[in-house]
């Protein structure tokens, strides 16, 4: 039986706040990949990045659903339900 995300109702039509990891940009640091919080539009770096700001954003806000901001990647993740999600491709703004 497949596990389903119970937090899809929290997703909003958000736009990324920045063109990079918000916290890394403020610190003058680098990141590996970017993740977009689908609740508020926060952009954080992935867990392969040394700072792991996307996961830290979830830990501090409890916003459960994010998606990859990498070109050609249409997947997301629910931190609470620990389930992969598939999304429509993002269109450039």
Note down, in words, how this protein is organized.
- The chain has about 90 residues and is α+β, with helices and mostly antiparallel strands.
- The chain has helices spanning about 20-25, 55-60; strands at about 35, 45, 65-70, 75-80, 85.
- A five-stranded antiparallel β-sheet has the order 2-1-3-4-5.
- Strand 4 and strand 5 (about 85) form a beta hairpin.
- The chain is globular, with a radius of gyration of 13 Å.
- The protein starts with about 20 loop residues before the first helix and ends in a 7-residue tail after the last strand.
- The mean pLDDT is about 95.
Number of distinct beta strands = 5
Percentage of β-strand residues: 15-25%
| End-to-end C-alpha gap | 38 Å
Secondary-structure content class: alpha+beta
**Uncertain parts:** none
Largest sheet: 5 strands, antiparallel
Rg:
13 Å
Summed over residues and divided by their number, the pLDDT gives a mean of 94
Percent range of helical residues: 10-25%
Shape: globular
Q: Output the CATH class name of the domain at 22-86.
A: Alpha Beta
CATH fold topology of the domain at 22-86: Herpes Virus-1
| Element-level helix/strand string | HEEHEEE
CATH superfamily of the domain at 22-86: Zinc/RING finger domain, C3HC4 (zinc finger)
């Amino acid at each position: 039986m497949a596990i389903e995300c119970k937090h899809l109702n929290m997703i909003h039509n958000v736009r990324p706040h920045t063109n990079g990891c918000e916290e890394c940009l403020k610190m003058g640091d680098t990141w590996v990949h970017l993740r977009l919080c689908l609740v508020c539009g926060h952009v954080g770096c992935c867990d392969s990045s040394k700072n792991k700001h996307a996961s830290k954003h979830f830990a501090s806000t409890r916003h459960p659903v994010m998606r990859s901001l990498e070109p050609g990647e249409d997947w997301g993740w629910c931190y609470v339900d620990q389930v992969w999600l598939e999304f429509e491709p993002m269109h450039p703004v």
